[in-house]
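Private note to self, pasted from the team thread so I don't lose it. Backbone tokens:
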């Protein structure tokens, strides 16, 4: 293995076992809805930029076409919404799209590992390069939290000899996070990529000499399991359920359980998806006194005009609309009021405590 992509290196860093399934055993990873949606959005953005399509009806047609051939059901309207954020539409007709590159990770070693990839979009200005990566993630993060843009900066500084500003555009919220890369940032990214690639090559050599794959590329369950297509197979390797530890007495024990829960929950999600596909074709599957089935849930959706009529009807019946209507978290977001402004109205926060996996702040 001589040529690496950022995603390949990142997978190895996050979970060596998942990396080995994909790139050594060459097992096809089951696709996830999040992955299919992300690829669909990127496809629409690329097509819109290359074809210079800006009219809404044309973009809608493209979104529906992309959704129609997706490997899992995805919503064409959601694809269209994410792909037509202001930052995206402003880029049409400018810069460079999906540019392929391949560079050495160790210029002094002609036989050293190489890096290849495609850059979503970048612009060349008089003073700098602005490289942009479109993200469909639900949770935003900063450019320096990963090495992706740092490696793009490595290539672009070699090509143009100009400073590089890395920009992440989160399409769900429209939020943008930027960082002007220093030579130290770029070298750190290069060093990480080089060391990771070298480690992969050494482990593959050891494997070819009779080493054990699961020992050379161990599973590292945790938050990375949430979107992993191999989680079900990986969970079969887990021995955590064989013995009941009783009450945890150390952080190490608790952390092990926490990581395994991530893996097992993801495995359950994959099993449910497979069972759902069977039920869609063949009907309910009984399990004792219950059954797995596709259950239709209904709710009334009130457009603005219907809300006005509902308010008038309540007033006609001497019902105070304020005893029925309420401002939800979604509604407050649309108002863009600050916490201070909301508190000044007399509202108060009522906290609830839930046990779940959350990002470390």
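Design output:
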């Amino acid at each position: 293995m001589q040529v690496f992509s950022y995603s390949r290196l990142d997978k190895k860093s996050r979970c060596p076992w998942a990396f080995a399934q994909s790139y050594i055993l060459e097992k096809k990873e089951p696709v996830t809805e999040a992955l299919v949606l992300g690829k669909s959005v990127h496809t629409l953005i690329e097509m819109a930029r290359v074809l210079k399509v800006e009219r809404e009806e044309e973009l809608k047609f493209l979104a529906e076409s992309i959704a129609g051939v997706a490997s899992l059901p995805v919503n064409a309207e959601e694809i269209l919404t994410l792909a037509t954020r202001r930052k995206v539409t402003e880029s049409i007709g400018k810069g460079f799209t999906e540019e392929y590159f391949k560079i050495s990770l160790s210029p002094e070693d002609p036989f050293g590992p190489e890096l290849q990839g495609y850059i979503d979009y970048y612009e060349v200005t008089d003073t700098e390069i602005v490289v942009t990566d479109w993200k469909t993630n639900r949770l935003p993060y900063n450019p320096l939290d990963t090495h992706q843009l740092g490696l793009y900066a490595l290539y672009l500084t070699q090509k143009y000899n100009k400073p590089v500003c890395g920009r992440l555009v989160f399409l769900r919220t429209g939020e943008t996070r930027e960082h002007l890369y220093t030579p130290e940032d770029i070298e750190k990214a290069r060093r990480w990529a080089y060391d990771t690639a070298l480690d992969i090559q050494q482990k593959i050599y050891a494997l070819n000499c009779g080493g054990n794959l699961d020992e050379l590329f161990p599973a590292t369950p945790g938050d990375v399991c949430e979107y992993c297509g191999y989680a079900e197979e990986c969970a079969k390797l887990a021995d955590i359920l064989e013995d009941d530890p009783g009450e945890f007495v150390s952080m190490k024990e608790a952390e092990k359980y926490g990581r395994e829960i991530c893996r097992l929950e993801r495995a359950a999600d994959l099993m449910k998806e497979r069972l759902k596909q069977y039920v869609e074709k063949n009907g309910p599957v009984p399990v004792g006194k219950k059954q797995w089935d596709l259950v239709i849930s209904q709710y009334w959706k009130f457009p603005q005009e219907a809300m006005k009529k509902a308010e008038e009807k309540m007033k006609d019946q001497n019902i105070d609309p304020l005893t029925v209507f309420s401002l939800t978290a979604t509604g407050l977001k649309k108002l863009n009021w600050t916490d201070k402004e909301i508190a000044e109205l007399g509202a108060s926060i009522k906290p609830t405590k839930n046990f779940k996996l959350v990002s470390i702040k």
